[in-house]
Amino acid sequence: MPDLVYRNVMHDIKKRIRGGEFTTKKLPDERSLSESYQVSRSTIKRAMGVLVDQGIIFKKRGSGTFINPLYLKDQSAFRYEGRNLGITDSFQVNGEQPQSRLLDYRVVPASPEIQQELFLNDAEFVYRIKRLRLFDDQPVIIETGYIPIKILPALTPAVVQSSIFNYLQETQDQSVTKSFLSIRAQPSSHEDQKLLNLTEVEPVGVMEGIFFMDDGTPFEVSNMHLHYKYLKYGTFVNLDED
Amino acid sequence: MPDLVYRNVMHDIKKRIRGGEFTTKKLPDERSLSESYQVSRSTIKRAMGVLVDQGIIFKKRGSGTFINPLYLKDQSAFRYEGRNLGITDSFQVNGEQPQSRLLDYRVVPASPEIQQELFLNDAEFVYRIKRLRLFDDQPVIIETGYIPIKILPALTPAVVQSSIFNYLQETQDQSVTKSFLSIRAQPSSHEDQKLLNLTEVEPVGVMEGIFFMDDGTPFEVSNMHLHYKYLKYGTFVNLDED
DNA sequence: AAGTGGTCTAGACCACTAC
DNA sequence: TAGTGGTCTAGACCACTTA
Questions:
Q1: Among A47, A107, A129, B61, which one is most buried in terms of CB atoms within 10 A?
Q2: Smallest Cα–Cα separation from A213: which of A105, A119, A141, A131?
Q3: Which nucleotides of C are covered by protein (CB under 7 A)?
């Protein structure tokens, strides 16, 4: 990442908060920070804005800026467990890379629904990639992904076994940072039970996602069935600005 | 809401996008918009930034700003179904107000966990409010909420039956726009099955939330068991700025 | 080379809170 | 009344894309 000023300020303030520097839970006012960091007040505001979005601080007009007490108590809650879930391919649990077993790999015509979601024409084809992901030798996710062949014409099963997102990054210098996600739950099917070692009263979490490249092109539609014990989506929700 | 310039611009651009005005999927450049709206370029950037956060447009440095094709195809995906779920109390489904059946209402000492989450001391008390929420006479959610008595010392069962958030708004001019949410799934318990009319293979969604007032004070901890057919959390995820 | 978005600045003025 | 965050401006300069 480039060396942006507001980013540096943001990280520094975060570090100072974690270091327990502001025992009153109150941050210095924006004009002082502007002075001490030798940057404009706008830049301070931008840095602070990121921390507000992350739920780490609260601003109160007229009184000042305050640290979310929970951030000091339990920083793990701020880790956005859901974030890693967003990018299925760069999944990590406790820093461990998942294994992947390829269940199916084929090229098929895009169904009307997939056409709409990936913005394809009638005659276009997609890879249909079905994988079982395992952590610690435990099967955790059944994932079915659809990717337009025109985006990755040279995709191979070998690449699919490792990381499609890395491959995209390397071959096209594009990353995937945006997605729509929806999450729900349902009883497990026979296939779910068999692949994920579930009993019939144990459910699966269903995550469906559309992933976009930096330029807005839809890159992949993905449907995931997760072992319910591994589904945990956590997020900070801010209803301002709506 | 006040009549902020960037907000007006944001809404106007959104309206123009929905109206199909930009058939090329490309928006005018920022300097032109600045000119035509007679506002500064910074204000345009701010308005556009909101739309980027909502997943409605994508910016591409050097080329321009483009509409997310999915926004035109399927605006419902952009509705953040999860948003309403965030504020359990102002829940709506198809614009319908939920009914609420009070299952339990008492004042108890805050457990260590609740103390931590609501930032309370050892000797403090909380309301423990257990409600069953129904839509269309269908039981949908079992909710157990914990609220510090010191925040709402005059709370009554009558208020609880209607809307606690409205009550907070009226009595203290505070709203609740921020929360931590976590979502998971699990098999239904006997109580779940009985109250939500589930069979034993049907699961519940579990949403846990900590809700904050505008000034950052934790207001409520809530644990919800949702009928799995009504759990659908959708959101736009942007992994920039991390 | 021209066009477009990104970053950053310096400062004016407003709105709210606390005293 | 003093202090604090919010909004908005006008403009400089940079980085990237496209031709």
A1: A47
A2: A119
A3: 3-12, 15-18
For an interface test with A, the pick among B59, B114, B184 (most A C-beta atoms closer than 10 Å) comes out as: B184
Question: Is there a single domain that holds both residue A192 and residue A92?
Answer: yes
Which residue, of B78, B106, B130, is where some domain finishes? Answer: B78
Closest residue (CA to C1') to nucleotide C18 in the complex: A63
pLDDT at A241: 67
Same domain, A210 and A170: yes
Percent of chain B with pLDDT over 70: 88
Does the beta-carbon distance from B180 to A232 stay under 8 Å? no
Q: What percent of chain B has pLDDT over 90?
A: 58
Regarding whether A36 and A18 lie in a shared domain, the answer is: yes
pLDDT given at position A158: 87
pLDDT one-digit tens code per residue, B5-60: 999 999 999 999 999 999 888 999 999 999 999 999 999 999 999 999 999 999 99
DSSP H or E stretch at residue A102: strand A99-109
Query: Which nucleotide is nearest to A44 if distance is taken from CA to C1'?
Result: C8
Q: How far is residue A89's CA from residue A85's CA, in Å, rounded to a whole number?
A: 9
Judge if the beta carbon of A29 is closer than 7 A to nucleic acid strand D: yes
pLDDT at residue A237, rounded to an integer: 86
**Residue B119, domain extent:** 81-230
> CATH number, domain at A110?
3.40.1410.10
The model's pLDDT over B52-103, given as tens digits with 9 standing for 90+, comes to 999 999 999 999 999 998 888 766 666 544 444 444 444 444 455 667 899 9
How many Cβ atoms from other residues are within 10 Å of residue B152's Cβ?
19
**DSSP of B76-94:** GGGG-HHHHHHSGGG--BT
Q: If you ran DSSP here, which 8-state letter would residue A242 be given? A: -
